[in-house]
Amino acid sequence: MRHAFLVIAHNNWWQLKKLIQQLDDESNDIYVHIDKKSKDFHIDDFIGITTYSGLFFYQEYEVFWGGYSQVEVEMYLMDKAHQKGYDYYHIISGADLLLKSNSEIHDFFEKHKGLEFVDINDKKMHSDPEIKRRTKLYHFLQNYRRRYKVEFVNEIFTFLERLCLVLQIIVGINRTKTLDWKIKYGSNWVSITNSLVEVVLREKDKISKVFSYTNCADELFVQTVVYNCGFEERIYKAQDGMPSNVRYIDWSRGRNGNPYTFKIKDKGILLQNKALFARKFSEKVDKEIIEQLVR
Question: Do residues 83 and 8 lie in contact, with contact meaning Cβ atoms separated by under 8 Å?
């Protein structure tokens, strides 16, 4: 089996090299998108760092948290990788690391070949009205609310965005009223088959129409395609400590909507965890845990 790792990164280049070092295997190719806003990235620093994997870098999009640009990057990397064709496509961030060896990961996907490793969280979807509003209403300012270094400017755009949403609620805007897709929600970090990637790329125009003004659409678009395009029965069911998207992400210790950043004190928990990948890590928070996991 052949695997494409689609990596979305924007900083921490030492750490990114460690991740690429982990992924370097003759069964893997690595496709990395660097945020166009990252001015300190130098591709020359990454030349020749893999021995077995094909390594491809792109810097096409300015990526904004919560913006449709994240969906664009994911589909862009899918398209680039699909041109060569793989059994599985793994969307990960530059803040991720492997918890298992490449041989263990390959064996796992061989054993479960044909399944989609996608998280769909209906419980949170039904309990959190904000998630439903993401697609129901137009989020025109999604790319401006968090992009400026001056926080006061971000607060202005946040206020304007909220005002726009309130006005839409008052006049009864509902973008999904006649939509023939049912919106689903879950983690944007997934491992999916070539068949599903082909459907995502085929539905690219519809995805753009539905999600281009949707807040945090990266947590919705793959799940929505899976549910509405015949892949629901192929989703891997979480079992025996293995999450449905085979990733260990600790939200219980996270803050301000961000997952917890693992530290050296978490080494035992990480090594005992059954998930294949984990996020997140940061060289600025704790380099030692990264060095311990990448050997």
Answer: no
List beta partners, residue 30: 5, 55
**156-167 burial, b for 16+ CB within 10 Å, e for fewer?**
ebeeebeebbee
Query: Cis ω on the peptide bond leading into residue 265 (within 30° of 0)?
Result: no
Q: pLDDT per residue over 170-190, tens digit each?
A: 999 999 999 999 999 999 999
Q: Determine the number of helices (DSSP H) and then strands (DSSP E) in the chain.
A: 11, 8
- pLDDT score for 151: 76
**Phi and psi of 255, rounded to 5°?**
-140, 150
Domain boundaries 3-123+184-293, CATH class: alpha beta
Domain boundaries, the chain: 3-123+184-293, 127-171
- Smallest CA-to-CA distance from 26 within 110, 106, 114 is with 106
* Nearest alpha-carbon partner for 135 in 206, 79, 191: 206
Sheet containing 277-279, strands listed edge to edge, beginning at the edge strand earlier in sequence: 96-98, 277-279, 247-249
Q: How far apart are CA 203 and CA 207, in angstroms?
A: 6
Q: Would the pTM of this model clear 0.90, i.e. be above it?
A: yes
pLDDT of the residue at 245? 97
Give phi and psi for 276, each to the nearest 5. Answer: -85, -35
Residue 279's contacts (CB-CB under 8 Å, 6 or more residues apart) are 92, 93, 95, 96, 97, 189, 247, 248, 249, 259
